[in-house]
Each structure stands twice: as C-alpha cells, then as structure tokens.
Amino acid sequence: MPDAADTIPCISELASRARNAGARVVFTQDWHTDPDPEFEVWPPHAVIGSWGAEIVDELDPGAADRVIRKPRYDAFYGTSLDHLLRLWGVRHLILTGTVANICMQHTAASAALRWYDVVLAEDAVSALTPFDLQSTLRQLTFLYLGRVAPSDGIVFTAATGS
Questions:
Q1: Taking the CA of residue 144 as centre, how many other CA atoms within 13 Å lie in the half-sphere pointing to its CB?
Q2: Are 124 and 96 in contact (CB under 8 A)?
Q3: With left for phi above 0 and alpha for psi between -120 and 50, is residue 161 left, alpha or beta?
Q4: What are the backbone dihedrals phi and psi of residue 95, each rounded to the nearest 5 degrees, phi first?
Q5: pLDDT digits (tens, 9 = 90+) for 111-152
Q6: Is pTM beyond 0.90 here?
Q7: Cα–Cα distance between 101 and 9 in angstroms, integer?
Q8: Domain extent at residue 103
Q9: Tens-digit pLDDT profile for residues 77-89
Q10: Within the chain, how many helices (H) and strands (E) appear?
C-alpha cells in the first residue's frame, strides 16, 4: 500500500489513547495457509509464519490487546470477533488499517450489519489509490451510516471506554 506506512503513527497514537481510556484494542491479522483460494484473486500474501503475516513492530499489541487472525477480507468472517465484542459489551468500533476498499470496507460493512456504531479514522486508513479510499468512505457513510473522523478528533471517555 503506497500510504500504509504513513498511517502507522496515527494508528499507534489512537491505540495508546484507547488503552489509556480503558477501551479494548483488537488487532486483526491477515492469516493464510498456502495454498489459499484467495491467492486466485491476489498473489500469495500474509502466509502463516511469513514476515508478511506479522503485525509491524511499531504497532506491537499490548498485553491486554487481542489479536484476531482472519482468513478473509472481513474480520468477522470465521473469527471470534463478534463474540468477544458482545462479551465485552462493545457497541462502538473505531476502525483503522490498510486496504480500505477491501479489508476495511468488508469489515466495516459486516460491523454495521451487526448494528455496531462504526467510525473510520480517515488518517489511519490506507488504500490502493485515493479513489479507492474515497469510495470506501462514501460507502461507509452512505450505505452503513458510519462516520469518518480524523484520529485526533476521536475522543475516548472514561465512562464508556469509547
């Protein structure tokens, strides 16, 4: 992703502020076996045990953070994410990450369809092209009634953790 490295400081800062407010932080990790049917669409990537499957060092998950390994674009598909969020009583999700029009869009859609309040931190998301990012933001706000905000405009409250 051309802009992925630029999002790392924003993601790191947002995660730190979330932890300090008592909010849950969940990392999702693209995690594929070889072969994987997805490799018919995209070249092999994020293969289990490879460098490409690892979370970048600058975003090292904290001890209380969760890491969800996902087999497809959508972080809810085939994972325990929804179960964990419901156990924790989470209703508000702030999404960050890469490939806005693929992984981010599918995860945001899946969250919204489960009635989570979805906010996408626009400076903490990267895409293949500016058009891809803009189309994702449009879909999120128009179709799923999600919100888009700069990461420094997202406020965590101690009472809600969100």
A1: 26
A2: yes
A3: left
A4: -105, 140
A5: 999 999 999 999 999 999 999 999 999 999 999 999 999 999
A6: yes
A7: 21
A8: 4-153
A9: 999 999 999 999 9
A10: 4, 5
Whether 158 is in a domain gets the answer: no
Contact in structure between 25 and 124 (CB atoms under 8 Å):
no
- Residue 26: both structure tokens together: 């969940």
Report the number of distinct structural domains present in the chain. 1
Asked if the structure places residue 161 within a domain, the reply is no
Say how far apart CA 141 and CA 133 lie, in whole Å. Answer: 12
Domain of 116, CATH number, reads 3.40.50.850
Nearest CA to 92 out of 20, 162, 1, 11 is that of 162
Dist CA 52 CA 44 (whole Å):
10
Residue linked to tokens 């690892």:
54
Give the Cα separation of 55 and 65 in Å (integer): 13
